[in-house]
Amino acid sequence: MALIETAGLTKEYGQVKALNGLDFQLEPGIIGLVGANGAGKSTLIKILLGLVAPTSGRASVLGMDVAAEARGIRKVVGYMPEHDCLPPDVGATEFVTHMARISGLPRTAARERTAEVLRHVGLYEERYRQIGGYSTGMKQRVKLAQALAHDPKLLLLDEPTNGLDPTGRDEMLDLIKRTGTEFGISVVVASHLLGEIEQVCSFLLAIDAGRVLKAAPISTFTQRTSVLAVEVEEGADRLAAALMGRGFRAKQDEACVLIALEDEALYDAVRDAVADLGLPLVRIQQERRRLEDIFREAVPASAGAQ
Amino acid sequence: MSTANRVTASSPTGNIYDLGYRHYDGKRRGRWYAAWSLYVDSLRGIWGFGRPMSAKAAPFILAGLYAFPAAIQLAFSSVIAQSVKEGNAANLFEYGNYFTGLGILMILFCVAQAPEVVCRDQRYQVLPLYFTRAMGRSDYALARLASLSTALFLALMVPMFALFVGDVLMGADAFAAIGTELPKSLPSIPANLLVAVSMASISLALSSYSPRRAYSAIGLVAYFLLMEAVPAIIYGVGQHAGWTWADKLVLTTPITSLQAATDWFFGRSLTARGFPDTLGPDAYVLACIASAALFTGILLFRYRRVAA
């Protein structure tokens, strides 16, 4: 059974087409839903949850139609919204227990699940304090906890790393990965940062302006998009020329040289070239390329296929 | 035992109790249970339970003030009984005139607590979490309405109970007094139920249109003041100008109608209070029921539309 399936899914807000005939089929796993701001990610998630009705087309989640069986879907789905959604004057334990009960868990089960889930997301002593005093990272954890409280079969996470610092971001991504692999819950992560999606997802669905840009396993994306950035204090032009002379696709970008990472031999080549030229090396880094870059590449390649 | 402890002490302590993620295979209940859970949580919230102390202040002070005269009457019941026995006319609170005298405090209760019930979830955007669970939008609105109605009903009934106890104690024979007091006090249950549901539906329907507590509160005060004053003024002018339709307007007042409806339950006449006697008290009862239905409809309509 497909996790999520859509056919000709369209949503119009007045003149604006938020979704423009989406057709795709997703299998269980950790799915990255990428797109720039305004691409239609949140609209898609809201349609899948039955919060918003599509203008035309249909969609189904775990074999249930979003229009006819919205209530059935909501029972087995956990949703973490993009925006703040926590009242400040209650504790995390009380709030998550309440939400678990709204999901239909009896009182004692709701309490047990809450304790367990809060521990999983990494909230300990502070869980009795009022949410208003939490840091952004802790609030994101509570938001994830309330989505997990009723043990859903599918988690829909809308920009889960919003507003987190790099450490918090990595921890959240790790949690998402554990949820998908260890807990065996399918996850759809919406994000505009491709780097995050690369870290945790097994499958990627890229949408742009309400259309499917590409739907494929993550490996097909990263191979084509990895770039090695080599920063030198001087002589970036000479380095770029030397690397091109060795048959790599290199480009100078101010003090950096960007080289398409298609071959492991590149690392050795960079080392040798820098040493031969005697350049002061600052850093070598595998670049997480921004979504716009991949889109620029993906559009001509896949527009015809989709 | 000690050996086991020593063994575990060398392993990472954080993992001793970590059983990993466990799936939940237990019972899952449906929408009625969800609505009931929301109702209970909401009722606790109105009285400030599970919230900081400051959240308890407004509801308890207002409910306390409302019950205060009845409590005083209860405290001095023996003195009052003595005085009545000596032939002094006592101007006391009864079941039938209590809300008429002190209803203003219940307006304040609504102004303070109704925004608390419906504005928080909009302000802090909690609604999507409810509407993506096994709970419908109407379930949500009705559970909230039921909770405020219950809270108001409790606040309204506390002084009724105090009056009952006081009246029983005033009697020479307590057991006989219960027998005579009970039938007199019983109409307070349906009367206060009507008051509670009517005031709760008006307050919640109006509050739900703003996510801001302050605006909701101001809107409620404005509604209760204007809807009391304007029909009364038009009625007053109409009496001189000979507008025969003006008495119908009094039916639209939120509080005066409820006071008149209370009189119907206790079989009191309206004329003593300067209400238009062209309409019977039963007309006010119907008006209050119609108003409760109308505002419940408005509340449901609001939650059909509200963005989530």
Characterization of this structure:
The complex is a heterodimer of chains A (306) and B (308). In chain A, 39% of the residues lie in helices and 27% in strands. Chain A has eleven helices and 14 strands. Chain A has helices at residues 41-49, 70-75, 92-102, 107-121, 136-148, 166-181, 194-200, 218-225, 236-245, 265-277, 291-302, and strands spanning 4-13, 16-26, 30-34, 56-61, 64-65, 77-80, 154-158, 186-191, 203-208, 211-217, 227-232, 250-253, 256-260, 281-287. In chain A, helix 3 crosses helix 4, helix 4 (107-121) crosses helix 5 and helix 9 crosses helix 10 (265-277). The longest helix of chain A has 16 residues, at 166-181. Mean pLDDT of chain A is 87; it is low at 299-306. With 308 residues, chain B is mainly alpha-helical. Chain B has one domain (31-305). Chain B contains 13 helices and no strands. In chain B, helix 2 (31-46) packs across helix 7, helix 5 runs parallel beside helix 9 (188-207) and helix 7 runs antiparallel to helix 13. Chains A and B meet through helix 2, helix 3 and helix 4 of A and helix 2 and helix 6 of B.
Roughly what is the average pLDDT of chain B, rounded to an integer? 87
Number of domains of chain B: 1
Count all strands of chain B and give the number: 0
User: Shape of chain B from CA axes?
Assistant: globular
Spatial gap, N to C terminus of chain A: 22 Å
Question: Helices, strands, pairings?
Answer:
The complex is a heterodimer of chains A (306) and B (308).
Chain A (H helix, E strand, L loop, with lengths): L3 E10 L2 E11 L3 E5 L6 H9 L6 E6 L2 E2 L4 H6 L1 E4 L11 H11 L4 H15 L14 H13 L5 E5 L7 H16 L4 E6 L2 H7 L2 E6 L2 E7 H8 L1 E6 L3 H10 L4 E4 L2 E5 L4 H13 L3 E7 L3 H12 L4
Parallel strand pairs in A: 3-8, 3-9, 6-7, 7-8
Antiparallel strand pairs in A: 1-2, 1-4, 4-5, 9-10, 11-13, 11-14, 12-13
Helix pairs in contact in A: 3-4, 4-5, 9-10
Chain B lengths: L1 H9 L20 H16 L6 H23 L1 H9 L12 H26 L3 H5 L5 H34 L3 H12 L2 H20 L5 H29 L4 H4 L4 H13 L14 H25 L3
